[in-house]
């Protein structure tokens, strides 16, 4: 074939195709990785060494403190005695004894000690309920439990007669019945309005007396525990999870409302989002704890945790709405048109075509908002609820543990980190799964 | 003109037009803001007709067929599809949309659903067909467009030509009486244009009423029974393809034809 390159003849026909060859030795294995990632140039080599030094310096200062930690003591003074005896006077050593001494408080606040099984069981219920929602492999039949779980969890945490949660659930059944039986005879609009109004009327005027009467006739229930006894991670978890679960649907509705062509719905959504988002969460929390009392009729007993959950939900829904709107805007117009052209109505095209895709695009933003919301639950300390930060203050206020900071904050930080990191990992799992499915 | 002209296999004797009216457009006008896109459009489409709409870009040809299933709203005049008058009444709009199929330039398949799910979605949710029956229908039409083996894949895994054929099958699953094509081959590689045109020809031979916005003049010449030429939002000329191509009347048509057929 060598004479093919003569100037006279530029025509070329390949007769045999070349086989694949192995790349050169220097292009594979650990050597290649080191060279490409750590020492690709002089500047990078220097930066690598400097980073290693920095990591060493940080570890050299923190590891001894952590490893020498004292786990078994009754007070900070005792901690120091043990440390002095073990490692010599004044050596850096953590005093984790505060956590072994007070972990129940950090987790459960002032929830009665003999009733700890209730929040633990509630947590297990929560995991069982959330599993079929998060993972497609879990049997679908478990979704039935998911529907019942909120009422069960409420009963376990707050106690009282079983009739309270049951009458609340009855309200939802009334709403469902309106949709199921009134749509045919009266049309969808009337049925929807009835499905919203009737349960609200029921909850406001009938549910309370009904639950009381039933409670008098058949007093079945658990020992009641008031919201003032809630604290620690249990409090953060209840507020955070309730906020997360409630704010997603609300946020989606607000995002759709903001895209709507209907003037009133559009303006109400925009106004709501901008108002809620433009004011700091702490202001809304103060509103929940102080101002609402002025507006509500005197004597109304509106649970403080419920008020906080509502405020946190509204706050994060405004953010979710904007994140979801970003996802909606990222979809090509053709998707809306194809759904229209096939004759799908608005809610069908949203549910089946638009939202599955828009939410997938919005997953990172949505999860960021959720993580932010969960961490913001620590702000409730300012309105007198004892979240982990609030408890750390009250633990420090006792004579035994006066002067301890790092160990408590480390513990609280790790607990929050575990929760937030799992959310982050789950979102990455979900994104990967959806990308694989859609490609 | 492309080399495809000689390859398209069609038996014109099978093509029949009845005198039943499928679409009736009278004095229809549309504006985008203050821009007058469609001006006094009068058009009657009979059942079984294959109409090709041609014209320079911006002449309003896409907008015209998008008005027929109300992806665009017209502001004056009357559009009647299969006896249903298009107004802002949502019931009528949904009724017309489920009777009129549409294929888009960019296919607009739903990327999060499999090919089969793309095809069964509307029959299940709009027509309330049982899932099993919808799947049988879908497989029937996927076989018709010759890609039944792709049923469980996602649109992203298919070539452009295959995607457009799925889009046609998806529309057919709703058993439409009229099909609208909005530049169905414009986004395709040259190698894939023929497979889509072949599918469209089969449809034509089965008597489907078709309105196609396309630049495939070979298709227009051999399949269409009427070619409409639009410019500046108006119908400038319409005729049988033979007359239209060989003996155009208006200067604008002559210029257009010389530009697209000249090279």
UniProtKB/TrEMBL annotation, chain A:
<keyword id="KW-0813">Transport</keyword>
<dbReference type="InterPro" id="IPR010065">
    <property type="entry name" value="AA_ABC_transptr_permease_3TM"/>
</dbReference>
<feature type="transmembrane region" description="Helical">
    <location>
        <begin position="268"/>
        <end position="292"/>
    </location>
</feature>
<dbReference type="Pfam" id="PF00528">
    <property type="entry name" value="BPD_transp_1"/>
</dbReference>
<feature type="transmembrane region" description="Helical">
    <location>
        <begin position="404"/>
        <end position="423"/>
    </location>
</feature>
<feature type="transmembrane region" description="Helical">
    <location>
        <begin position="142"/>
        <end position="160"/>
    </location>
</feature>
<keyword id="KW-1133">Transmembrane helix</keyword>
<dbReference type="GO" id="GO:0043190">
    <property type="term" value="C:ATP-binding cassette (ABC) transporter complex"/>
</dbReference>
<dbReference type="InterPro" id="IPR043429">
    <property type="entry name" value="ArtM/GltK/GlnP/TcyL/YhdX-like"/>
</dbReference>
<protein>
    <submittedName>
        <fullName>Amino acid ABC transporter permease</fullName>
    </submittedName>
</protein>
<dbReference type="InterPro" id="IPR000515">
    <property type="entry name" value="MetI-like"/>
</dbReference>
<feature type="transmembrane region" description="Helical">
    <location>
        <begin position="230"/>
        <end position="256"/>
    </location>
</feature>
<feature type="transmembrane region" description="Helical">
    <location>
        <begin position="42"/>
        <end position="59"/>
    </location>
</feature>
<keyword id="KW-1003">Cell membrane</keyword>
<keyword id="KW-0812">Transmembrane</keyword>
<dbReference type="GO" id="GO:0006865">
    <property type="term" value="P:amino acid transport"/>
</dbReference>
<comment type="similarity">
    <text>Belongs to the binding-protein-dependent transport system permease family. HisMQ subfamily.</text>
</comment>
<feature type="transmembrane region" description="Helical">
    <location>
        <begin position="115"/>
        <end position="135"/>
    </location>
</feature>
<feature type="domain" description="ABC transmembrane type-1">
    <location>
        <begin position="233"/>
        <end position="427"/>
    </location>
</feature>
<keyword id="KW-0472">Membrane</keyword>
<feature type="transmembrane region" description="Helical">
    <location>
        <begin position="304"/>
        <end position="324"/>
    </location>
</feature>
<dbReference type="InterPro" id="IPR035906">
    <property type="entry name" value="MetI-like_sf"/>
</dbReference>
UniProtKB/TrEMBL annotation, chain B:
<dbReference type="InterPro" id="IPR003593">
    <property type="entry name" value="AAA+_ATPase"/>
</dbReference>
<keyword id="KW-0813">Transport</keyword>
<comment type="similarity">
    <text>Belongs to the ABC transporter superfamily.</text>
</comment>
<dbReference type="InterPro" id="IPR050086">
    <property type="entry name" value="MetN_ABC_transporter-like"/>
</dbReference>
<dbReference type="GO" id="GO:0005524">
    <property type="term" value="F:ATP binding"/>
</dbReference>
<dbReference type="InterPro" id="IPR030679">
    <property type="entry name" value="ABC_ATPase_HisP-typ"/>
</dbReference>
<dbReference type="Pfam" id="PF00005">
    <property type="entry name" value="ABC_tran"/>
</dbReference>
<dbReference type="GO" id="GO:0016887">
    <property type="term" value="F:ATP hydrolysis activity"/>
</dbReference>
<feature type="domain" description="ABC transporter">
    <location>
        <begin position="23"/>
        <end position="257"/>
    </location>
</feature>
<dbReference type="GO" id="GO:0015424">
    <property type="term" value="F:ABC-type amino acid transporter activity"/>
</dbReference>
<dbReference type="InterPro" id="IPR017871">
    <property type="entry name" value="ABC_transporter-like_CS"/>
</dbReference>
<keyword id="KW-0067">ATP-binding</keyword>
<dbReference type="InterPro" id="IPR027417">
    <property type="entry name" value="P-loop_NTPase"/>
</dbReference>
<keyword id="KW-0547">Nucleotide-binding</keyword>
<dbReference type="InterPro" id="IPR003439">
    <property type="entry name" value="ABC_transporter-like_ATP-bd"/>
</dbReference>
<protein>
    <submittedName>
        <fullName>Amino acid ABC transporter ATP-binding protein</fullName>
    </submittedName>
</protein>
